[in-house]
């Protein structure tokens, strides 16, 4: 079993009364849903392209927030980690882990490659 760095449940009114569980290991993010029929999805952290934090007024009142995750994973794609505690801290921890995994796997996005090409062309002229 993977070393779990973080875990939480989707919350309603700040209470963990949901059958959706989230967890993160050093190299993967897991989303488990269901009570009788369980479904577990995972995405490798190096496949995560972008993270966005959203906190509505109601979420702030109950001390939760949601993280929108854009990934290149075929099964999950873009998904939301909904109504979790300490959402800003979790987003930051996830961001750090994503960058560590990208460096470890030597994975670079096209965005970084385009920026590097633009820098080369600027220096030539």
Automatic annotation (TrEMBL):
InterPro entries: YdbS-like_PH. It holds the Pfam family bPH_2. It comes from the Bacteria. Residues 19-91 form the YdbS-like PH domain. This is PH domain-containing protein. It comes from Pseudobutyrivibrio ruminis. The lineage of its organism: Bacteria, Bacillati, Bacillota, Clostridia, Lachnospirales.
């Amino acid at each position: 079993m993977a070393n779990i760095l973080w875990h939480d449940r989707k919350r309603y009114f700040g209470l963990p009364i949901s059958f959706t569980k989230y967890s993160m290991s050093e190299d993967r993010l897991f989303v488990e849903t269901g009570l009788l029929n369980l479904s577990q999805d995972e995405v490798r952290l190096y496949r995560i392209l972008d993270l966005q934090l959203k906190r509505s007024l109601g979420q702030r009142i109950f001390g939760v927030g949601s993280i929108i995750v854009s990934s290149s994973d075929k099964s999950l794609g873009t998904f939301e980690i909904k109504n979790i505690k300490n959402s800003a801290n979790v987003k930051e921890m996830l961001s750090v882990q994503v960058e560590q995994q990208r460096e470890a796997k030597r994975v670079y996005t096209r965005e970084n490659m385009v920026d590097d090409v633009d820098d080369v062309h600027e220096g030539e002229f």
